[in-house]
Design a protein that fits this description.
The chain is mostly beta strands and about 130 residues long. It has two helices and seven strands; from the N terminus they run E-E-H-E-E-E-E-E-H. It has one domain (about 20-110): Beta Barrel (Thrombin, subunit H), CATH 2.40.10. It has helices at about 30-35, 110-120; strands spanning about 20, 25-30, 45-50, 55-60, 70-75, 80-95, 100-110.
């Protein structure tokens, strides 16, 4: 009988994930080129983060998204935007308890100072 990694309690994540409940402002784009070129033209939406790692973040949003969508994020910690990143939607799931969507995002562009800030939050050393 084969046991998968979830049943065995094995953590498959590459990076340590920590709970982080902070505001997130985001914009949804159809393509990466649109995210990098267009400034302040798309609607800015808000969500709340659930957790974060050096590899990505989970947010809770009222809007459902599709895998592979591109998001431009501003993640607030304290009173200022501490992390600016681009991420790709990897999964979505409706949380009936909250009446909102949980969205799993993978960072694909993150400045060094933002990566360092996340490393400090999670207690992981930078490579």
């Amino acid at each position: 009988m084969a046991i998968n990694s979830e049943e065995a309690g094995i953590e498959r994540r590459k990076y340590k994930r920590v709970v982080l409940n902070v505001p997130v402002e985001y914009e949804i784009f159809r393509a990466l080129s649109q995210a990098l070129v267009i400034k302040d033209r798309s609607a800015k939406l808000t969500a709340v983060s659930e957790n974060i790692s050096a590899g990505g973040i989970q947010i809770i949003s009222e809007i459902d998204m599709q895998p592979e969508q591109i998001l431009k994020l501003k993640i607030f910690h304290g009173k200022t935007s501490r992390i600016n990143a681009h991420a790709i939607v990897r999964w979505t799931a409706f949380d009936s308890r909250l009446g909102k969507y949980r969205i799993g995002l993978e960072f694909f562009y993150l400045k060094d100072d933002c990566r360092e800030f996340i490393a400090n939050l999670t207690g992981e050393a930078l490579n």
